[in-house]
Amino acid sequence: MKKQDYNNYRKFYAPHHFVFYPVLLVLMIVSWQNASKYPDQQMLWYFITGIFVLIGWLSFMLRQHYALGNQNRIVRLEMRLRYYQLTHQNFEPLEQQLSFGQIAALRFASDEELPVLVKSALANNLSSNDIKKSIKNWNADLMRV
């Protein structure tokens, strides 16, 4: 398995990203074209196109909503535990000063880098992208949604 870092940490779910969404996009395009091809049934084809758009939007929103909501809770708990194990201090007071994006970015830091990066993120209000770019030893997350 390839070593994970800033350049390759994004993850795709092949059935959704490379099968379902492309097929849905083709169906939307075909139904939209059929609206101009068959003017006597134009409203029906626009309605069908609208249904496909709605299905795509709902599938994206629901898939993301449930999985990410749960994952975000787990990320916060993981960071609390790691920070406490490394520093013997509670992470909760610091967590209140950080955005979730910053917390999620910090979890990619190695144990050696984490306490310093937390302080740097707080002091310099680093964005999640800046935090990720400053990580020297990437702690791979191969199990995220």
The DSSP helix count reads 6
Question: What fraction strand?
Answer: under 5%
User: Pairing-aware structural class of the strands and helices?
Assistant: mainly alpha
**Beta strands, count:** 0
Helix content: 55-70%
Low-confidence regions? none
> For the residues shown, what is the average pLDDT?
92
One letter per element, helices H and strands E, the order comes to HHHHHH
From the N-terminal CA to the C-terminal CA, the straight-line distance is: 18 Å
**Main sheet overview:** none
Gyration radius, in Å: 22 Å
Shape: elongated
List keywords for this structure.
mainly alpha, single chain, 145 residues
Précis, in short:
The protein is built from six helices and no strands.
